[in-house]
Design goal:
The protein is mainly beta and 240 residues long. Helix content is 8%, strand content 41%. The strands form 2 sheets. Strands 1, 3, 8, 9, 10, 12 and 13 form a 7-stranded antiparallel β-sheet that branches. A 7-stranded antiparallel β-sheet has the order 2-11-4-5-6-7-14. One of its GO terms (molecular function) is hydrolase activity, hydrolyzing O-glycosyl compounds.
Length: 240
């Protein structure tokens, strides 16, 4: 599937099923050339939200001018509250070929993966209800290509060059293994599956994530003391 963006409209798709816990994966080839102002997104989010208490897990690829790297912007929303951004450069050119991106969301943690390398883990530390974790709202998978030149590239200072439109991003090989939600309940076919039963990253996966974060992470909200006026969010630095 190819998604296109011009100065009249973006485009997107959504999964047919809703899930409470799932592993979703897709191969993406991003917009080539001058992609400044564009955002290619792969995320799971609540399908219908009453008020502002939605859950969402984001992987957003922020375009840039030719020759500059893409920024992978990740965020996790719980009960309508985000502010959990981590940003990364990629260790390859994501525009010349397809690469694999996945989101694993289970009762213990959320893991974001790029080409089989974990880049981020958000653990469920909500035993005392003071670190929110998405657990009870069904979500769908979404893919989209849209214009965000008010913030996406260098804080909005670089605008979309519409003379380069239409911009195109390609998606293929979508898979989902999850607890499908319907009629007010979710059904998990196999709770022993590795994606569902894993508790936290360890071993070689942990080493790979540490390598990515050491060499390619460019922003981590848990390091931004000034942003939070000296009091970091409760999950930062905590271990279960």
């Amino acid at each position: 599937m190819s998604l296109a963006l011009d100065n009249s409209s973006g485009s997107g798709f959504q999964s047919k099923n809703q899930f409470i816990y799932a592993k979703v994966e897709v191969n993406i080839k991003l917009v080539a050339g001058n992609s400044a102002g564009t955002v290619t997104s792969f995320y799971v989010s609540i399908y219908i939200s009453e008020g502002n208490a939605w859950d969402e897990i984001d992987m957003e690829f922020l375009g840039n001018t030719s020759g500059d790297p893409y920024v992978l912007h990740t965020n996790i929303f719980t009960k309508g509250m985000g502010n959990r951004e981590q940003q990364f450069y990629l260790w390859f050119d994501p525009t010349t070929d397809f690469h694999t991106y996945s989101i694993t969301w289970n009762p213990a943690h959320i893991v974001l993966v790029v080409d089989k390398k974990p880049i981020r883990e958000y653990r469920n530390l909500d035993s005392n209800n003071n670190v929110p974790y998405p657990r009870d709202q069904p979500m769908k998978l979404y893919g989209s290509l849209w214009n965000a030149d008010d913030w996406a590239t260098r804080g909005g200072s670089v605008k979309t060059d519409w003379s380069k439109a239409p911009f195109t991003a390609s998606f293929k090989t979508y898979t989902a293994d999850g607890c499908v939600y319907g009629n007010g309940a979710s059904s998990c076919p196999d709770k022993t599956a590795p994606w569902y039963s894993s508790k936290q990253i360890g071993g070689d996966d942990l080493k790979q994530m540490q390598w990515v974060q050491k060499n390619y992470m460019i922003y981590n909200y848990c390091d931004d003391v000034n942003r939070f006026h000296g009091s970091l969010p409760a999950e930062c630095g905590r271990k279960k």
